[in-house]
Amino acid sequence: MKKLISLILLLSTTTIFADTDDNEIIITQTGDTLKLYIDQEGFGNKIGGNNFQSTGTAMLITGTTLEFDLDFTGNSNILFGPVTADNSTYKLDFTGDSNIIDWSVGGTGSSDDSDINFGVTGSSNTFDLDQGTAFSAERLNADLVLIGSSNVFDIDWESDDVVWNWDITGASNNINTLQKDGANEMTVELNGDSADVDINQISGTCAASGNGCATPNAIITLDITSDNSTIQINQKDSANDS
To answer: What is the pTM of this model?
Structure first.
């Protein structure tokens, strides 16, 4: 039997455990300094809105100084919805195959000073991550450690001043990533064959005046151990998209 959990959270620390199939956690949250801990185990679990079709209601989380610690173990699980928060930390660990993550940070307002860490072990997962695509976002530090094959990542960081580090081990992974505006720094470690990697880095303009910034830097450091891979890099000193 499907379990349905609906939460309205204000200024709290919350821990949720779910360990049977087809669990569903629906979150509507407004308030600051929320600490949210979720451990979800099994097959076909969902965190987000009431469904995951194009007409579904998304997860709605709004506040400042939020702390997320989400652990998913299992296959075919879904994380979906927008989060709007400044000065917040996100730690998401996924173990399993064929999971879907469609997540937007800053969907309804600014999302400055974010720290996002992903740990993924598994194959055939799909990640669609966005920040700063609709509203202002500054100072993002993002890290991804992936062990697995045939994963697909579409990651769009449109925040000013982004440090984006990713370490991928496995074959046939497909990664499309964008850094846009402000100073950008990316470090890539890739160990695996038949990868398809597209990197777009647009340095744009300085995040703030009077800080000594004339032209922001755009830096990419690559460490690749791979056969039969395709890597395309577009690096521009322009606010225009690639």
So the answer is: 0.82
C-alpha distances in Å from residue 117, one per residue of 57, 141, 147, 164: 25, 8, 14, 10
Task: Report domain extents, the chain.
Answer: 3-236
| 88's tokens | 């917040």
Are the C-beta atoms of residues 63 and 31 closer than 8 Å to each other?
yes
What pLDDT does residue 11 have? 43
Q: What is the DSSP string of 145-165?
A: EEE-SS-EEEEEE--EEEEEE
Apex CA 15: angle with CA 58 and CA 38, to 5°? 50
Closest to 69 in 3D by CA, of 88, 52, 54, 56 = 88
- Helices H / strands E in the chain, number of each: 0, 20
Mean pLDDT of 84-104: 91
| pLDDT higher than 80, residue 22 | no
pLDDT per position as a tens digit, 95-121:
999 988 888 898 788 999 999 999 999
Taking the alpha carbons of 158, 159, 160, 164 in that order, is the dihedral positive or negative?
negative
Q: Residue 193 is encoded by which pair of tokens?
A: 């064959």
- Read off the pLDDT of each residue in 202-229 and give the average, rounded to a whole number: 76
The answer to whether the Cα torsion of 46, 48, 53, 56 is positive or negative is positive
Token pair of 167, please? 């370490």
Instruction: Please report, for residues 61, 123, 184, 222, the alpha-carbon distance to residue 83 in angstroms, rounded to integers and kept in the order given.
Output: 5, 26, 23, 31
Torsion of CA 156, 136, 88, 235, to 10 degrees: 40
**Bridge-based pairing state of the strands 196-202 and 174-180:** parallel
